[in-house]
Amino acid sequence: MQATLDAIDHSLADASALFNNKSMTILSGIMAPRRRLEVFCWKMLGPRGWIYGTALLISIGIFYALFAHEPVKTFRETLNLSSSSRPDFTTVDTSAAPLEDGLESVLGPLRPYKEGFTIVSPTYHRTEGLTEYLDNYATGDVPSLHKIILIWNNEEDAPGWLNKTLTNYQVPIVLERRARNSKNYRFQRTPAIETAAVLALDDDMVIKPRDVEYAFQSWQMYRYPRKRMVGYIRRRVSPQGDYRMSPSPEGYSMVLTKSAFIHVDWMDLWWADTPIMRDFRDYVDSRKLPEKYPDLTTGCEDIAMSYLYGHHAQTPPLWIAGAEFHDIGHSKLDGISTQEGHNDARQACVHHFREVFGKDSLVNTQIHASVIAEEDENAGRVD
């Protein structure tokens, strides 16, 4: 009998490596009186009673070892981070991440990046709204925001007051000048981008900080984040190729990159020196739009990125429903989307990229993530 008990002791010691220290403390506490009970069962009930008693104790111990852990923080608790607490932006721990996502032939292998996300916003002759923009994003109210990059597309230098203002915020702000105004620069990767997640954002889009954090967490929670765009403004292209701006019960197939999270590796693809990507960039710059709207300045780089994602990733985007935001350009009627003929110009872009990638590149979906008030017990649900 003693030899049998010693053998069980060794087996339990080997099993302890499977559990954490707290669980093994509980397991040890339960198993401490085991010998006395085993001897009692052996004397009173014989070998069969000893076997049953020992098996019962081991089962109870394993149950507690498996389930007596600290509760895991929920997604909602993550969203309720204090605005004053900012994470350490160290390299992402990829030990639990997938080693492949199926996009290696297009985007290259998965690589580690820093935590959080980077806002990249092109700006062109619209400095009057930058103060409201920076006050909304750069004051530390978005816990996961790592950096803001402003792409200065103006021909003249940035005004002195703007350069001085950039140093007054809690979030680092980088002002990068470009030689000319091009929609392609929205997707140009620079050394200043150190995170995997990039929020492509127009300089006239002011989104509630809580809803920015929520969208980032939604993007990050997806097992293969390189495959999915997450954004605030949805659009749909019908099977017949009709571009539709109004909501449809049939769902949506793109989110616009005037306010959308993408993976930084798609920026590398955008600037790849291949015939198809050179055609992409040339088309965006040349604005090949209907002749009756010669002055229209829509570059349709957002439609191009949606087709690029859809064709290679074959994954639908995710629309963040219920987010609070203020589209300054739209409300002042001076944004691109308010110009006459805008929808016809967008339709021309859709036709062009359908010819490049095929009619079935975009993936339609009716699923969306809902932003709900924090006091609602269903906050953060996905419908």
Your description of this structure?
This protein has helices at 2-15, 21-31, 34-67, 75-79, 104-107, 130-137, 160-165, 209-221, 265-270, 275-286, 301-313, 328-331, 342-357, and strands at 114-123, 145-152, 173-177, 195-201, 205-207, 230-231, 234-237, 243-244, 254-255, 259-263, 318-321, 325-327, 368-370. With 383 residues, it is an alpha/beta fold. It folds into two domains: 40-66; 113-370, Spore Coat Polysaccharide Biosynthesis Protein SpsA, Chain A (Alpha-Beta Complex), CATH 3.90.550. The strands form three sheets. It has an eight-stranded mixed beta sheet with strand order 3-2-1-4-10-6-11-13. A three-stranded antiparallel beta sheet has the order 8-7-9. A hairpin with a 5-residue loop joins strand 7 and strand 8. The termini are far apart.
Order of helices and strands: HHHHHEHEHEEEHEEEEEHHHEEHHE
What would CATH call the architecture of the largest domain? Answer: Alpha-Beta Complex
Strand content: 15-25%
- Secondary-structure-based class equals alpha/beta
Q: Residue ranges: pLDDT <50 for 5 or more in a row?
A: 2-34, 62-95, 292-296, 375-383
- The coarse overall form would be globular
CATH superfamily (homologous) name of the largest domain: Spore Coat Polysaccharide Biosynthesis Protein SpsA, Chain A
CATH class of the largest domain: Alpha Beta
Mean pLDDT comes to 77
* Rg: 28 Å
Considering DSSP H and I runs of 4 or more, what fraction of the residues is helical?
A: 25-40%
What spatial order of strands do you see in the largest sheet?
Answer: 3-2-1-4-10-6-11-13
Total of domains: 2
- How far from one another are the termini? 60 Å
E-strand count: 13
What's the tally of helices?
A: 13
CATH fold category name of the largest domain: Spore Coat Polysaccharide Biosynthesis Protein SpsA, Chain A
Largest sheet: 8 strands, mixed
Pfam family, one: Glyco_transf_64
Subcellular location: Membrane
Keywords: Disulfide bond, Membrane, Transferase, Transmembrane, Transmembrane helix
Transmembrane segments: 49-67
